[in-house]
Amino acid sequence: MKLDGIASFVAVAEAGSISEAARSLRLSKSVVSERLGELERSVGARLLHRTTRRLSVTEDGAAFLDRARRILREVEEASADLSERRGTLAGPMRIAAPITFGHMHLGPALYPFLAAHPQIELTLDLDDRRVDIASGAYDGVIRHGVIDDSRLMVWRLAPSRRLLVASDDYLARHGMPHSIAELDDHRGIFYTNRGVADWRFLGPEGVEIVRAKVALRVNNGAMILDAALAGLGIALLPTFIAGPLIRTGGLRVVDVGIRPEGEAIFLAHPEGRRPSAKLRALADHLRRAFGDPPYWEEGVSIHAPA
């Protein structure tokens, strides 16, 4: 059983096609097919169903897939450990992160880190959908939100503050709300990946939930910003997204006398796995790059002028 065959099988199973797997492995389709055939002969079982229209994992393939992933991970970690013993951060590392935060802040923070450690082979997946951290597909997952799952191994990278914002045009047409009760009569722009279309605030009695009229539900922070700027409604946005427009007056802060539930930018990694030195180094670098308070808070006040 050869490692390149195992790597090809895992790539095909995850991509769902030989063509996509070949592109990710930078190999020809014929080479990937040959390696898959050799692997199936060595294990004495068919691992994949192949038809002209689709490819799927067989029952034996599904049973083998988790072990195959572990084998590859162990080899990668062993290689990385040897590099780290020599004082070098090297080898593959796969990270998932949200799209808008990744583009606006993570990328600029990552580039100098990668330049300083050229032997790290980073794969960055930007996706706003929730990722199963326990699956082991990623070394780490960067997320923005409330850290409320005690099963996760989490490193806090930076605090995150959210503010209600709206355009002057919207407020001229609908008025400025001054309490959470008044929000009920307003139109809201909501982030769908959080589930229910509501806003959560911390009041004297605990969490208070507001459900404004839905103007738009969307699964991307940048589009929520654009919709608020277009005057569609009020949005609850983190300052790392809305900060620049608050500072320039493109959006106004809506102060209802109560603050939204606190959140954080965090890096989670699979429980039970020792995080690599390069993942720890990345977390330390990102903490320094973002700062505490983070740099995107500069000049952003709840009383920011229009």
UniProtKB/TrEMBL annotation:
It comes from the Bacteria. Keywords: DNA-binding, Transcription, Transcription regulation. The keyword Cytoplasm does not apply. The keyword Lipoprotein does not apply. Residues 1-58 form the HTH lysR-type domain. SUPFAM superfamilies: Periplasmic binding protein-like II (SSF53850), Winged helix' DNA-binding domain (SSF46785). Pfam families: HTH_1 (PF00126), LysR_substrate (PF03466). InterPro entries: LysR-type_TF_proteobact-type (IPR058163), LysR_HTH_N (IPR000847), LysR_subst-bd (IPR005119), WH-like_DNA-bd_sf (IPR036388), WH_DNA-bd_sf (IPR036390). Gene3D superfamilies: 3.40.190.290, Winged helix-like DNA-binding domain superfamily/Winged helix DNA-binding domain. Belongs to the LysR transcriptional regulatory family. This is LysR family transcriptional regulator.
